[in-house]
Design goal:
Elements lengths: L1 H22 L1 H8 L15 H24 L4 H26 L4 H24 L1
Helix pairs in contact: 1-3, 1-5, 2-5, 3-5, 4-5
Length: about 130
């Protein structure tokens, strides 16, 4: 059952990302300097980033489940707080470090960190509910 829960948590986080980045597509594409076509959509339509993203989110969900089990994190409230904490205090700082050293716009780090926090919070809730 744990494996199914991890897949559900990853799928929910991935779906939330689709919505999140659709809403913030213009500022994100500007900050990331994504090349766009005449229709305003990204010029690169390769499925590779989506596949890699889902696999990476699946890895995060799996490690979160493992960490929760070792730490005794149970219940929606604790899952929500732990998931939020992972996004806000583990993943987001790393995004800012990487963006800072690669001289990327800070707004890109803000947008991407927002998604990291949202996704890990969702995963934390699902991992403690299912």
């Amino acid at each position: 059952m744990g494996f199914v829960t991890v897949i559900v948590a990853a799928a929910a986080a991935f779906a939330a990302g689709a919505i999140y980045y659709m809403v913030l597509s213009k500022p994100w594409m500007a900050a990331a300097k994504i090349e766009v076509g005449p229709d305003g959509k990204p010029a690169n339509t390769s499925p590779a980033p989506y596949i890699v993203s889902f696999v990476m989110i699946l890895m995060v969900a799996g490690m979160m489940r493992h960490t929760f089990a070792l730490s005794g994190i149970e219940g929606v409230g604790k899952g929500l707080v732990a998931g939020f904490g992972i996004g806000a205090f583990f993943i987001s700082p790393w995004i800012f470090v990487n963006n800072g050293y690669s001289n990327r716009p800070w707004m890109l780090a803000v947008i991407d960190s927002g998604y990291a926090i949202l996704a890990t919070t969702i995963m934390g809730v699902i991992l403690t509910v299912l």
